[in-house]
Amino acid sequence: MSLLSFSGVVFAVAAIAGFLGSLTGLGGGVVVTPVLTMLLGVDFHYAIGATLVSVIATSSGAAAAYVKEGFSNIRVGMFLEIATTLGAVAGAHLTAIVPTSGLAVIFGLVLLYSAWQSFHEFSGPKQPRPDPLADRLKLNGEYPGPSGSLRYQVYRVKSGFGLMFGAGLLSGLLGIGSGAMKVIAMDQAMLIPFKVSTATSNFMIGVTAAASAGIYLRRGYIDPGLAMPVMLGVLAGSLIGARQLFGAKTRALRLIFAAVVTLLAIEMIYSGFTGGLK
Amino acid sequence: MTDRRIEEIIGTLLRAGVLLSAAIVLTGGIWYMARHGEQAPSYYRFLGEPLELRGLPALIGSLGALRARTLIQLGLIILIATPVARVVFSLIAFWLERDRTYVVITLIVLAILLYSLMVY
What we know:
The complex is a heterodimer.
Chain A: H1 3-24, H2 29-39, H3 44-69, H4 74-94, H5 100-119, H6 132-136, E1 141-145, E2 148-152, H7 157-174, H8 178-189, H9 194-218, H10 224-244, H11 250-274
Antiparallel strand pairs in A: 1-2
Helix pairs in contact in A: 1-2, 1-3, 1-9, 1-10, 2-3, 3-9, 3-10, 4-7, 4-9, 5-11, 7-8, 8-9
Chain B: H1 3-36, H2 56-61, H3 68-96, H4 100-119
Helix pairs in contact in B: 1-3, 3-4
């Protein structure tokens, strides 16, 4: 295969990843990494470098639209970024001590459970008591619905913050999967509307990824020839995906989210057993 | 400055960063494919990138003898810088809004971000 047709294939795969990533708040590494390494035989280091680029491209591409339309909650994002970036730094320091393959398997199982959970959340979540911290931090907001703005409350701020630290820790330790944890924490712990959760996750993952971009660049993981079709494809896909969010049915989004998270879980468990994460 | 206005400016900032980097990467990509498109891909074994592609200072130093790969890498670095620029702008916006809590929150995020970009 020539470099031109190879790049064409990578572009197409990346476009699908960007489309799914922008709608689910997951980034797109779920699709990009395994296709590059397993199907196209790309070395793992180059693959994770390209994946990092794809996460930032999805995030900035989709978030540009979501922030303007009022889906992303910038205060929730900003506040929770303290937890995710701290977690990411801590995780990166712990990679030498923590057995990542065992962790990958455990995280995979947690994701399988969460996918099942997020899929079964239709009956309407039980409302806990309002959280005074959400008022103090001005986290409650509104987002565009079919007939005007819909207001929402943010619950269990401390639990959400703790889970976000866990999300950052995992992304520092394992390199991927932080978007999934972010959406799950906002959706299931803080009871933020699903579309706001995915759009705010999209807004946040770029910052988490940028925090580790420096080290990837310095280690020579980011190859411009490979990252080029990944970046352009993901961007095209995420711009198309971002147009769909407003009209999309929450039920359909949850279904796609659960499917992609299940895929991610299988990847994590597989790479945990084969030791492919390092 | 209101929250709505901040959202609009942040949205525009993100879009500008993404479009600028995409235009540079696309230009470099077309150039790269025109020169090397017929070759076989060589991503199967990790060799690491040459030094001038591993950081902004070295990259700028090598811009005199511009190559397609260097141009793409420049676009990618602009992409990486976009979320950081977004945090810096949020800091200014919350400052103008006189929202002290969020100035502090954003400062903490920025400090952690800069630490992780500089230190390792």
